[in-house]
Specification:
alpha/beta, six-stranded mixed beta sheet, 8 strands
Length: 169
C-alpha cells in the first residue's frame, strides 16, 4: 500500500490533488492534546471535512476516519475537552451524510505499546486503551473488508483477532 500526505490547513483543491488516483482516504489526524480549541477545530473538524470534500472531488469513494471513543453521544464527551469531542462528533456526522463509503473507527486512549492484534469492537464500549499499532491493524483490515462500509464502532484492546472482531459489527 502506498500512502500520501496532505496539508490539512491548505485548500480543498490542494488536498484534491494529493488524493487524486487513490483508492481510499484514511483520516488519522488530530491536533494533539497540547493545542487549544482553535487548532482542534481547524484540524479535527475542518481538516476532516476538507479531506472528505477533496475525496469527493477526486472521485475517491472510500473514506476511513479515526475518531474518538464515545463522541457519538454527547453525554460521553470528555469534560476536560468538550471542543475536542464536538469536533470529532461533527466530523463523523458530516462523513455519514457525505455520500462516501465510510467507516468510522472510535478508538479508546492511544498508547505506544506494541500491538497484540487482539481487539474489542462494538457500537459502544467503556473507555479503554489501545496501542496505536492495533488501530493501524484495524484500519488495514477495514480497507480490505467491504462489510465495514457504513459502519461506526468503538475500539479498545480485547481478546479477539482483528478480523474476527470486525465480523461482530
Amino acid at each position: 500500500m502506498e500512502s500520501v500526505i496532505g496539508d490539512l490547513e491548505g485548500s480543498v483543491d490542494d488536498l484534491t490533488e494529493v488524493v487524486q488516483g487513490c483508492d481510499a482516504v484514511v483520516f488519522t489526524a488530530g491536533s494533539g492534546g497540547h493545542t487549544g480549541a482553535d487548532k482542534t477545530v481547524m484540524i479535527d473538524l475542518d481538516g476532516a471535512i476538507k479531506s472528505m470534500e477533496a475525496a469527493r472531488k477526486a472521485g475517491v469513494k472510500r473514506f476511513v476516519i479515526v475518531s474518538a471513543i464515545g463522541v457519538h453521544k454527547r453525554e460521553n464527551w470528555m469534560e476536560s475537552a468538550p471542543y475536542y469531542s464536538a469536533a470529532k462528533h461533527y466530523a463523523d456526522e458530516w462523513l455519514v451524510n457525505s455520500g462516501l463509503d465510510y467507516t468510522i473507527i472510535r478508538p479508546g486512549g492511544l498508547t505506544n505499546d506494541e500491538g497484540t492484534r487482539k481487539v474489542k469492537v462494538a457500537e459502544e464500549l467503556d473507555r479503554g486503551k489501545i496501542p496505536r499499532e492495533d488501530v493501524a491493524n484495524v484500519i488495514l483490515a477495514v480497507l480490505e473488508d467491504d462489510t465495514t462500509v457504513g459502519k461506526s464502532f468503538d475500539l479498545t484492546s480485547g481478546e479477539h483477532a482483528v478480523e474476527e472482531a470486525l465480523r461482530s459489527i
